Amino acid sequence: MLKFLIDLGYRCHTPAELFGTRDSALGVRDEVWLTRVREHDWVVLSRDAKIMERPAELAAYRAANVHMFYLPGEATRAQLLELISANLRDIITYASAKKPNVWQIKRTGVSLFSPKRAPRKRS
């Protein structure tokens, strides 16, 4: 996916670049890398939708206030490339918006992300 975007002329960054090496980037808490991404005003492509479900990570995302796009976690490399290719125009359009938001990328297109909510307990 990274090579595909670079070949199209986009500047892309990896966690290894952000933290110096791939080993240094492994296991870095979401709260840490989100803050670092904001410092660079980068857009995030991720497969970790759990960020929107865990309170500390959600707070870190809100504080970072960055554009974030979720890809299906179970997708293969070929499927990821297909999704990015088919939706690149919309991704760029949404990433250019003044107010950051969270979107999900699916076969049906790019739409606002809405996290799954835990079922409410009945009392």
What portion of residues belong to β-strands? 5-15%
**Poorly predicted regions:** none
- Radius of gyration (Å): 15 Å
Approximate helicity band: 40-55%
Average pLDDT number: 88
- Shape designation: globular
Strand order of the largest sheet: 1-2-3-4
Number of helices: 6
- Biggest sheet statistics: 4 strands, mixed
Straight-line N-to-C gap: 47 Å
Number of strands: 4
Q: Pairing-aware structural class of the strands and helices?
A: alpha/beta
Q: Give helix and strand order, one letter per element, not per position.
A: HHHHEHEHEE
Q: What would you say this structure looks like, in words?
A:
The structure is a single chain. Helix 4 runs parallel beside helix 5 (55-64). This protein has a four-stranded mixed sheet with strand order 1-2-3-4. The chain has helices spanning 2-7, 15-19, 22-25, 30-40, 55-64, 77-95; strands spanning 44-46, 68-70, 102-106, 109-112. Strand 1, helix 5 and strand 2 form a beta-alpha-beta unit. The mean pLDDT is 88. It has 123 residues and is an alpha/beta fold.
